[in-house]
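Please, structure for the following, as tokens.
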Amino acid sequence: MRVNDSLLVPARYCGPAKSANGGYVAGALAAVLGDTGALSVTVTLRQPPPLDASMRVAAVEDGLELTFGGAVVARAGVSEASIEPVEAVSWHEAMAASAAYPGFTSHPFPTCFVCGTERSDGLRIFPGQVPSTHDGRTRVAAPWVPDDTLTTDSREYDDPALRVSLAATWSALDCIGGWAGDLTERLMVLGRMSAIIDELPVQGEQHVVTGEHRGSQGRKTFTASTLHDADGRIVGRAEHVWVAIDPATFTG
């Protein structure tokens, strides 16, 4: 494992206006961990990650620790835990669902890099509800075509296609979980995210992201998400723990 001595998240990759997108930070730490194969990477966020500020990345006994000003921002590690994928829907179903995205009417973080309606340079993943397939669980879906600003080095792949960075891939699997957990009714932020990335998405190709609500307990909401490519293959899957917050934490 190679560890960089710092991580800086540019302002483009915000979640709430004044902090970094949790999925992006988690994916950036996963990238520092290196090739984890089929293992799940879990990142726990302890406080809002700052933007445009150098955070320290250090190796610890069970993985990585991200700190800022001496305070722990996040911890990352690997495990053999499995992640149950969310069932896919077709591109056309996802397009139809996206037209009814609740964020068009009310959005707690409209400048979010992933799901913000005020971001022309974001991922613009706008999930809407689709029929449930498991015991009435809320399920949402959105179409996504990665653009050419999300490039990573594709030399490790046999095909010449340009791939999306790992941090952006984790981002794509992030916010849809919040919307599956009904972000319009309960203001939440990402507390923990686990993901298995089977391969990086290809730029310019059609993908579908699905999300599913899997339970709630006190201030916590549990969700999952899966990213499928145009052929219906799983590109990546994730599970999340969301924590209900006081709006003043981010907007006050």
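Residues 113 and 122 are 5 Å apart (CA to CA). The two ends are 39 Å apart (CA to CA).
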